[in-house]
Write a structure and sequence with these properties.
Length: 210
């Protein structure tokens, strides 16, 4: 996956992160889509809003890509860390956000299995359009375990999971779950399920509490 996403980053990073606008997506369209998703999925999320004071909270953007949402997290959170399996994506993120770098932003490359950070660091871990590309269930399980480890007690992991069966050999393909099968992993790792929300026929959101 690292080689795949490095290649996609070099080819057309904006399109492979957010394909809604087609291969000719502009920087403005890309940035506007990040702003819209950030507000819809984080700022306007009542469960997160009522549980946390964002200005005093630490958030991890898991699968940050080139910082499409990370950029806007900087406006509201005390500290922001963006991680990605692709070093090419992270380099592009550093370039995109070079004028926004502050001591409370960190961007890091990972191996896709381990999060190179300490225990109990984050109030929120957020992941969108990421797990749907994981080709192996062992990678999903490893990330759930790592997220549990880096979350603070009572922290929340908000993540979108694929529910439709697709060809995993395609760049956008990944393993699928039902609410029942992901429920077994949630229980195994130790999370408490707070909420689920179906997204069409192809996915669902999970809000998981440590």
């Amino acid at each position: 996956m690292k080689k795949l996403w490095d290649k996609l980053a070099r080819t057309n990073s904006k399109y492979y992160i957010n394909s809604d606008k087609g291969r000719g997506i502009t920087e403005k369209q890309f940035r506007d889509s990040g702003d819209e998703d950030y507000h819809n999925l984080i700022i306007d999320d009542e469960l997160l809003f009522h549980r946390f004071n964002f200005n005093n909270s630490f958030i991890l953007d898991l699968g940050a890509g080139t910082g499409r949402l990370t950029e806007f997290m900087l406006l509201d959170f005390r500290a922001v860390v963006g991680i990605d399996i692709s070093g090419e994506m992270i380099e592009l993120a550093r370039e995109r956000l070079r004028e926004r770098f502050t001591p409370h932003l960190k961007l890091m490359v990972t191996d896709g299995y381990k999060i190179p950070l300490g225990d109990n660091c984050f109030d929120i871990v957020f992941s969108y359009l990421v797990f749907q590309h994981f080709k192996e269930r062992k990678m999903v399980e490893a990330n759930f375990k790592e997220v549990y480890r880096v979350l603070k007690p009572k922290g929340i992991f908000k993540v979108r999971i694929r529910s439709d069966k697709v060809d995993k050999s395609r760049w956008w393909g990944g393993v699928e779950y039902t609410e029942q099968s992901i429920g077994k992993l949630i229980k195994k790792v130790g999370f408490k399920l707070l909420k689920t929300e179906t997204v069409g026929h192809y996915g669902f959101w999970l809000w998981l509490n440590k």
